[in-house]
Amino acid sequence: MIQTWLSRYARRRRLIAAALAAVAVLSAYLATRPAAGPTVLVAARDLSPGPLDPDDFSPVPLAHPPSGAVRATRTGQILATPMRKGEPLTDVRLLRTFRLPPGMVAAPVRIADAAAVELISPGSTIGVLASWQEGQPARQIASALTVLTIPATTRDSGHDHGALIVLATTPTQAAELAAAQAGGRLSITINPAGGP
């Protein structure tokens, strides 16, 4: 009788010890688990510059989000630079908040040869040429311009309509580019890396 009681007591002690050990492990995990931070938008796939779609991002809680992390997007926002899948969206990636040097503006221009635009990317330094009559030499309109973004070409626009790019320019350069593309065809020259 005493032996039966002792064996039952020993079994209970083992069960209680196992339960306490499990509680201790769970408590240690909960104590050391990083706290969930604010929910920010993270790229759901590799993204190209251009108009944003709500499906481009997933809301993810981050313990230490980067400065300027975006929590919600609105219709009409434009991504200024490419993004990799899993990368948090920050305000400097959006064209409306893209930091331009003082006195500069973002100027959209359409380049006649869409294939030439495929040779450049955001951050490239280019020159812009304009030609008004076939057989006549093109004239340089601007040089050493920085490409801010290259919106994705839609199926409707195709290569026949050239390719749209957005450049950092002075207001005077933006006006000259607008006048040139109103009556002529624009093309580009590509400055070598580190070139003027």
From TrEMBL:
Segments forming domain SAF: 38-95
SMART domains linked: SAF
Pfam families: RcpC (PF16976)
Keywords carried by this UniProt record: Cell projection, Cilium, Flagellum, Signal
Top-rank taxon, per record: Bacteria
Entry keyword Transcription: no
Protein name: Flagellar biosynthesis protein FlgA
Source species: Nonomuraea deserti
